[in-house]
Automatic annotation (TrEMBL):
Its cofactor is NAD(+). The keyword NAD applies. InterPro entries: Deoxyhypusine_synthase (IPR002773), Deoxyhypusine_synthase_sf (IPR036982), DHS-like_NAD/FAD-binding_dom (IPR029035). Belongs to the deoxyhypusine synthase family. This is Uncharacterized protein. Keywords: NAD. GO terms for molecular function: deoxyhypusine synthase activity. GO terms for cellular component: cytoplasm. It comes from the Eukaryota.
Length: 226
């Protein structure tokens, strides 16, 4: 219960989500009746007892930055979900929290006054400007290495591969994506450029142009994308 001091959530909807996740975790194909239309390959009892749900967990960025990040990390750490789907902020804020402390503030604090102190408010959480600077210093060398691997090894980068690489490089047990990488959990972020990571990709394209990435055959080359 001590964690509630630093947790932001809507109790009812969060509780409902837990119920649904538990239903998915516990479900097996053997719970369903075998009927005349059942595929013959699906009749075997051992097969039915071992077939479970493929669990996709989708969440918005606020759940990472000022919500239930630790709970999502726990699910990834313990392989309780199979796939993660989130927004750009849901990716970068996880890594930024590994760069330095986030402080408990108040929803009523004035943005202009915080700005003068080098602080940013996300809900009732305060993030120092220095954390974002550390994030930039951390990610740019990784993008350099990715460009080199693309040119020398023919690696085709996608948003999911980028997230997996960042999860590997962060090497921090508090990170959701560290555990996603470690446990082979794919992460999908359709609009990963809509945030700080997009800014970093844009800035990197001027210093070292040529990094291409996309989904499938849809390649994106910076800065033409912007």
């Amino acid at each position: 219960m001590d964690s509630m001091l630093t947790t932001g959530f809507q109790a009812t909807t969060f509780g409902q989500a837990i119920q649904e996740v538990n239903r998915m975790i516990n479900w097996r194909l053997s719970d369903e009746p075998v009927g005349p239309s059942t595929d013959p390959e699906h009749v075997d009892q051992e097969f039915r007892a071992s077939t479970r749900c493929l669990i996709f967990l989708g969440f918005t960025s606020n759940l990472t930055s000022a919500g239930v990040r630790e709970h999502i990390r726990y699910l990834a750490q313990n392989r309780m979900v199979d796939v993660l789907v989130t927004t750009a902020g849901g990716i970068e804020e996880d890594f930024i929290k590994c760069m330095g402390h986030t402080y408990l503030g108040d929803f009523q604090l004035k943005g202009a006054e915080l700005r003068m102190k080098g602080l940013n408010r996300i809900g009732n959480m305060l993030v120092p400007n220095s954390n974002y600077c550390k994030f930039e210093d951390w990610i740019i060398p990784i993008l350099d290495a990715m460009l080199k691997e693309q040119n020398e090894l023919g690696v085709n980068w996608t948003p999911s591969k980028l997230i997996d690489r960042l999860g590997k490089e962060i090497n921090h047990p508090d990170s959701i994506y560290y555990w996603a990488h470690k446990n082979g959990i794919p992460v999908f972020c359709p609009a990963i450029t809509d945030g700080s990571i997009g800014d970093m990709l844009f800035f990197h394209s001027y210093k070292s142009p040529g990094l291409r990435w996309g989904e499938g055959e849809m390649w994106i080359s910076f800065p033409a994308f912007f």
